[in-house]
């Protein structure tokens, strides 16, 4: 939703293979279908990713490196605000992990 969906729509309009990295399968798949229909680009795909979980980041990055022949652009757009204080299963503060640590780890893992 929001900025991420707009960026994905623009990339798909430019005929780019576009991977939507979403926490929720149903919402993500709805976005994929909407973007495919609006752009005519069938190369829009969904992969699950929760940047608030470093384990999820590692699984996602591993799959991208294994399945994709190249990665030209990475848009780190995930973020949360206003959540109550919470600690992740990895012992990290949830908002900080989602907004900073997860995207930082993802970028570094995808650099190869």
UniProtKB/TrEMBL annotation:
A Pfam short name: adh_short
Keyword annotations from UniProtKB, A to Z: Oxidoreductase
Superkingdom of the source species: Eukaryota
One MF annotation (Gene Ontology) recorded for this entry: oxidoreductase activity
Annotated SUPFAM superfamilies: NAD(P)-binding Rossmann-fold domains (SSF51735)
InterPro entries: NAD(P)-bd_dom_sf (IPR036291), SDR_fam (IPR002347)
Family that this chain belongs to: Belongs to the short-chain dehydrogenases/reductases (SDR) family.
Record-given protein name: RDH13 dehydrogenase
Gene it is expressed from: Rdh13
């Amino acid at each position: 939703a929001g900025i991420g969906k707009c960026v994905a729509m623009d990339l798909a309009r430019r005929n780019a293979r576009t991977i939507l990295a979403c926490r929720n399968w149903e919402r993500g798949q709805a976005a994929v279908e909407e973007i495919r229909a609006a752009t005519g680009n069938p190369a829009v795909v969904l992969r699950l990713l929760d940047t608030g979980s470093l384990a999820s980041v590692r699984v996602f990055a591993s799959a991208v490196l294994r399945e994709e022949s190249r990665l030209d652009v990475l848009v780190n757009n995930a973020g949360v605000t206003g959540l109550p204080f919470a600690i992740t299963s990895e012992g990290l503060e949830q908002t900080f992990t989602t907004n900073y640590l997860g995207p930082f780890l993802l970028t570094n893992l995808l650099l190869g």
